[in-house]
Design brief:
alpha+beta; Cyclophilin; 8-stranded antiparallel sheet; 8 strands; disordered N terminus
Length: about 240
């Protein structure tokens, strides 16, 4: 049984809710060709959230708090280089300083160990590899503890969807501001890039080493919803 689905997405992401947990095997609906959206079909369990700033969880900004929170976090954590380890090899990325909220958020997720509970869960041949989600209950629990917020769009005309671009996935419905998911990201694979995504998605980094690894991951067998037949877990380490 692959995954149990709880659709419980809040008003910020404007998706339908369900109150009961399915006992049947489910599959993700196929995504539209050449789009990058947030997957909401993995396990989602109700997890009680502690108040903001408690010792149990000091990282849980609300939407109102996200800008000042990430600005302050970014000043205290200025790193821009990250390594993504996979069974196919390592991918090293550089995060852009002029997308400060996305950079700070990615560093936060990495340092808090969120990405280590996730995988490259979507592989779209000759398009993207997408990570930051999984079927894991631990991931779901961590995701809810990290907060329910979106990142304001920080797309820059000089950061385009070229090969090796690192960008943020987003919710495609009722998201006129093109705000980003704080959890899910993708890497552009083809030489031609994916320039139809410019402006609509924030490119906040680039691969500096390991595009051969991206190419190998982009070749793996997938199901009808582009989920790899064999899991591709990751470990994300902040370098400097």
């Amino acid at each position: 049984m692959r995954r149990f689905v709880y659709f419980c997405v809040g008003a910020l992401i404007c998706l339908a809710c369900e109150d009961t947990k399915s006992s049947q095997k489910t599959t993700r609906a196929p995504q539209e060709l050449d789009t990058v959206s947030v997957d909401t079909s993995s396990v989602v369990e109700e997890v009680e959230k502690p108040p903001l700033g408690t010792p149990k969880n000091p990282f849980m900004p609300t939407q109102y708090e996200v800008k000042p929170f990430l600005k302050a976090y970014g000043e205290e954590n200025p790193e821009t280089k990250v390594r993504i380890e996979t069974s196919f090899g390592d991918i090293e990325v550089e995060l852009f300083k002029d997308t400060p909220l996305h950079r700070a958020n990615f560093i936060l997720m990495a340092k808090e160990g969120y990405f280590d509970l996730t995988q490259f869960y979507r592989v779209s041949p000759a398009f993207v590899i997408q990570g930051g989600n999984s079927d894991s209950y631990k991931m779901t629990k961590k995701r809810r503890a990290m907060g329910d917020y979106l990142l304001p769009n920080e797309a820059k005309p000089h950061h385009r969807h070229v090969r090796g671009a690192l960008a943020a996935a987003k919710f495609v419905e009722q998201n006129i501001s093109n705000a980003s998911s704080p959890f899910e990201f993708y890497i552009v694979q083809p030489q031609r890039g994916a320039h139809h995504l410019n402006k609509a998605h924030t490119v906040f980094g680039r691969v500096t080493k390991g595009m051969d690894v991206v190419d190998e991951i982009n070749k793996v067998p997938v199901d009808q919803s582009e989920w790899p037949l064999n899991n591709i877990p990751m470990k994300v380490t902040v370098l400097e």
